[in-house]
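Field log, afternoon session.

UNIT: design team B
ACTIVITY: writing a sequence onto a fixed backbone
BACKBONE:
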């Protein structure tokens, strides 16, 4: 990604799902002031107002996007004793 090349892109959007898919860092503005700033995974679940639909429906899981849920569902499930299911 861009981060590895030392480059950044600034995107202004109201689409929280898009931000969850593409952003490493999110800055939330309200009335012209910064009200939240930090890693996307932390900021987007810090308030139901900011959270993507996936996080609202499946919270408190660590998933923000549909792609993250799909990957988790394809992963093998392990029991407490470490056995695969």
């Amino acid at each position: 990604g861009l981060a590895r090349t030392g480059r950044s892109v600034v995107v202004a959007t109201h689409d929280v799902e898009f931000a969850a898919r593409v952003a490493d860092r999110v800055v939330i503005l309200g009335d012209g002031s910064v009200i939240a700033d930090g890693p996307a995974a932390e900021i987007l679940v810090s308030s139901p107002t900011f959270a993507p639909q996936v996080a609202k429906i499946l919270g408190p899981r660590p998933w923000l996007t549909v792609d993250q849920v799909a990957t988790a569902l394809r992963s093998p499930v392990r029991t407490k004793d470490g056995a695969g299911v």
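LOG NOTE: Residues 2-74 form one domain.
NEXT ACTIVITY: expression trials, pending approval
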